[in-house]
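Example 3.2
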Amino acid sequence: MTRNHWGAVKKITALGIGLFVPLMLCGGTSAAQTATRPPTHAARQTDSTFAKGDSFHPGIGSGPVILSTDMTMGLTTGNRNGIAPTVPDIDDSYAFALAVAHHLDVRGIVVTMGNSLVKPSMVTAQAARRALGSRVPVVQGADAWLPVEPQKTTGGANLTKTCVNDGVRFMADQLRRTRGLTILAIGPLTDVACLAMNYPAEAAHIKRIVALVGSKPTTPLELFGHPVVDFNYIMDPRAEAVVLEQTSIPFTAINFELSSLAPIPLDRLRKLAASPDPLAHFFGQSSLPLVAELAADGFPAKPIFDAAVVWHLIRPEDHVCKQTGFRLTTGSPAITQASDDNVTDWFSPEFTDTRQVTACTGFTTPQAEAAFKQAVLAAVHG
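Structure, written as tokens:
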């Protein structure tokens, strides 16, 4: 998570703003992996726009869910899996609060690297769980992205299983128990891809993956005038490619056009810290390092990107969604700059040479957008 113009050139800056971060570097059926799909890492760029008001609601429905998340609210440094000195993002914790407030059947939280290193993220995830009074299991997932290419030894041994961790095993076990659940992927898709590659029978029971990824091909990725990148994608490009290209698991992408809406003013987040309510105070106090960093860089408000994924499970009818194809161009994880255009994940109905997924790009009405913002604040007693 980094900023293009906010600091000395010799410093990797890293603003935690959920899915999309500015960057400046110093230099149907729920079938899983049985379907083999050709690569679509084409660099072809196709412009498209979605018809205003055109909506497609996938009807996910209720049922058990797992949060795959890089939950880091409360950390003061260590962004971008520890390689940047700035404050990691806060929105995963707000997304979890929204799920708790609306009584979603969350079976577990699998914590992955991304916003920061996985072990510090486990500490902050457990703190958020305690503050919310939840008993949901918090399980450690990936500590690093997938290798850019599949690895083998010189002796020919396939090393695909080396990505398996406690979080992946937990998801596989829950899928065997429930015979069907939804994965809300609000961090990099590393653990979800590892699950798909190593537990295909269990992954066949995934009802749908709802992920915070992607944009329209025509959308300039900017936030309050600052260029940004698709953080969850650039932290593990291969993971998203595995899920989209090598599985048939139903997939819903909550695109930047939607997740960047309904930002919460920084003053509202500061007021949480001054609240006598214990939950509001916890969230506000834990948000203050990022709020201060955002304010210093001229940001007036903070989108709660990840909460849009949870809201899609609660009120899918409030989102403008459409069936689309996708276009992925991949590169090395974590080093993409906001000025780069060669590491992208685009979703458009004009892409007809891939399997079709669902992409959501906006709210149906201004009232729906306002209701979402209010629900996020209410979830933390704001």
